[in-house]
Specification:
With 155 residues, the protein is α+β, with helices and mostly antiparallel strands. Strand 7 and strand 8 form a beta hairpin. The chain has a single domain, classed as 2,3-Dihydroxybiphenyl 1,2-Dioxygenase, domain 1 (Roll).
Length: 155
């Protein structure tokens, strides 16, 4: 298993289109991919550690980095303690780390005192992703990119 580095920051926002316009202008970024899911989607729920979730997202690239923006439509936001807050809360919600083996990285996080919140989701392009938590409640995403073209090698 090789840790490749931090891939992107993930921000949950109230208005996806406004956030895309703002970060595109501020950081000279462009949208390179869009994603969405609607409940019921047990695979997406398992990957992000939620139940009954629905979201729209955009992956942006520019300024030597990637930024992922999400607008969650469900479930309702709750909690002020980071350990109690879900992946759908407003603000910086997860740290994505590109790895070559998502399962091995998840096992290592658990060995070090972190928490598994779901199972990896496999994508059509060959990549995988899963959310988990560090021992302090911060959401970490381990991801491999497959043939998506979103590798740190592309920066």
């Amino acid at each position: 298993m090789k840790f490749r580095g931090i891939h992107h920051a993930g921000l949950v926002v109230r208005d996806l289109d406004a956030a895309v316009a703002f970060y595109g202008a501020l950081l000279d970024m462009e949208v390179i991919g869009r994603d969405r899911w609607r409940a019921p989607d047990p695979e997406a729920d398992s990957a992000v550690g939620l139940a009954g979730s629905s979201a729209d997202g955009a992956m942006m690239r520019g300024s030597g980095s990637y930024l992922e923006l999400w607008q969650y439509h469900a479930p309702a936001r709750v909690g002020d303690d980071p350990a109690d807050r879900g992946a759908h809360e407003l603000g910086l919600r997860h740290l994505a780390i590109e790895v070559d083996d998502v399962g091995a990285a998840l096992d290592r996080l658990v060995e070090l005192g972190g928490t598994r919140t779901g199972d990896p989701l496999r994508f059509d392009h060959g990549g995988e992703a899963v959310y988990c938590r560090d021992p302090f409640g911060t959401i970490i995403e381990f991801m491999s990119v497959g043939s998506s073209g979103e590798s740190l090698d592309e920066l």
